[in-house]
Amino acid sequence: MVASLRNGFSGVNAYLNKSNFADQLLKLMFDTFRKYLENKIALTDQDYELIESVASFKKLRKRQYLLQAGDVCRFNAFVCKGFLRYYYVDEKGQEHIMQFAPENYWTGDRESMDSGLPSKYNIDAIEDSEILLLKKEDFEMIRKTIPAFNDFVNETLKKNIVVLQERIHVSISFSAEEKYSNFISKYPSIGNRVPLHMIASYLGVSAETLSRIRSQISKKTV
Fold first, then answer.
1. pLDDT tens digits for 133-165?
2. What b/e readout covers 147-162, taking b as 16+ CB neighbours within 10 angstroms?
3. What is the largest CA-CA distance in the chain?
4. What's the CA gap between 126 and 117, in Å, rounded?
5. Domain residues for 34?
6. Is 110 within a domain?
7. pLDDT tens digits, residue range 70-93?
8. Which CATH number fits the domain that encloses residue 27?
9. 193 falls within a domain
10. Which are the contacts of 67, defined by CB distance < 8 A and separation ≥ 6?
11. Is 69 inside a domain boundary?
12. Which residue from 123, 144, 124 is spatially nearest to 54, judged by alpha carbons?
């Protein structure tokens, strides 16, 4: 009887410890998101409480999917820790990376989310990652309730359009070497965290071509 009670209490304590650890992890993840927003806009504690009340969190292992092609995207995702990629796979099985999303980046398939249609894209983790998720309806509720957040979202969307236009310009106007030099200049930290073949996929060149370019650049700097 005593042994049984001890085992029962042990199980309860283990559950409570695990629950407390999960709560602490969620708090740390939201604190990361809050610090990001504090550098962008001024919100009240009440605003942050509202956002936290509807936010959810997800841990991804390396190579684990956040979104798979054929599924409907139902969330806006913010990377608290780790590194994601957003890409599609063509009929030949070739991957085409559209976006890298390290810490403090947003990702998600807006077309699928707005239309309710299955996504053509995949999002998976390049590294073990921790993600804050806001469902579409909650995200829109926050925008309507907190004007400063809505202004921030609109400004971010404008900046994303400029980034997309610049990427299209680079894609059609730059040589392979210029594309790589431009990428490393803009995203030096990303270049150190991403495998060569993924950078090649993002730039739209073959891994062999990119390897040759890197070798040539290395020789020039010696």
1. 999 999 999 999 999 999 999 999 999 999 999
2. eebeebbeeeeeeeee
3. 78
4. 26
5. 2-173
6. yes
7. 999 999 999 999 999 999 999 999
8. 2.60.120.10
9. no
10. 73, 108, 109, 119, 121, 122, 123
11. yes
12. 144
